[in-house]
Amino acid sequence: MRAAYTRGLPGLLVALILAALALVSLPAPRAHAATDVSTVAAALRKGPVYVDPAASGQLSAAEADALAAKIEKADKPLFVAVLPADFPTENLFRNLRTDTGVTGLYAIRLGDRFDARADSAVMSRSAVQNLVTSVQGVSDASTQLNRFTDNALAGLRGSAPASWGGGTNDGGVSTGALIAVGAVAVVGGAGAYTVVRRNRRRKEEEQRAALDRLRVVVDEDITAFGEELDRLDFHPAEAGADDVMRADYERGLDAYEQAKSFMAGARRPEDVRAVTQSLEEGRFSLAVLAARREGRPVPERRAPCFFDPRHGPSVADAAWTPDGGAPREVPVCKADWMRLTGGEQPAVREVETKYGRRPYWDAGPAYGPWAGGYFGGGLLPGLLVGTVLGSMMASPGYGAAYGTGYGDFGGGYDGGDVSGADFDPGDFGGGFGDGGGGDFGGGGGDFGGGF
Question: What one-character DSSP code corresponds to residue 165?
Fold first, then answer.
């Protein structure tokens, strides 16, 4: 489907066919000027580009169609709206995302201003901010939107929504043409629906298989943490115990129970992030409790040992070079730090693969959420650069398959999926001076500013 400009055919295919059978000819309905967000959202559900009639001087029909064709060819969930400067701005991004109901990247040209927001499942906030900043100040709408689109498509995760398709026409449409188009659309739509269902089913099967592999590793982690609790042998009523120590111990117990509960409810690989995040928090609580009992200073909060998070919180950063990779600093526990400084190999966490036991960073994409819960999105990219897992996570296909990437190790809907109002409002807050995003010229907001 090309850009929704100032015209369009009726939305329901059945109604179109019935009308075609009843009439000798059907003149193309003329669109009215958009007066609210719902009109824009309805158009974006049908195609990637919408130009408000009052803003048609900014982007011609041909330019809009070319931009839409580019996005459709890339098969990415990018939505572009060109609106007049006086279009209502309060909660514009959030309301547009809610009404459209599709996970993706939303870009708006408002008069001569421009900004964008995205679901974190398809693009991180910092990436959106950088893209917006790169085109700020470009006065020509076509140049600005094409430059933004070219840059965005290179890093956007997910696929275009299934609702895009069809086309628009300027003049009258004959009955025969409508019948032919309708029949083809029915057959083609059924075929497309079958393909979509088959692809979704295959993806679900792949995710279940990945989760089954992860379950073995995560169960080992949970068991190891339970053994740590037993070895600690702390009793809340023991001599010397105080309320602070008891609170540390309670947090450790809570983390243990949460990890078991999260794993029991896991349905996709990305659900594992909450499990390992709980275990990381629990291990730090136990490390703090141990220091208090022994009269040592409370340790600083550090990432767990990179080589095996079961080793507990790291105590230092050490130089390490993966096979065929570049050297980097990784957080290590005391035992692995001593091994490395002594010229020995660290105690690496290995997992089963079809090629035998391998370090987790060489075991496959499903371990991204597992590692993300331990190390977080900000630290992990630098640790994994040059490894098999790092290379997989850097690809758009990884985000589409596992609903996650470097910037966001959470779950959620993939790009192009229909989520309705089920999305993080923080991703779309602010915009156009409504008090949520600061000054428009900031670009991308916090998205760091925004409209």
Answer: -
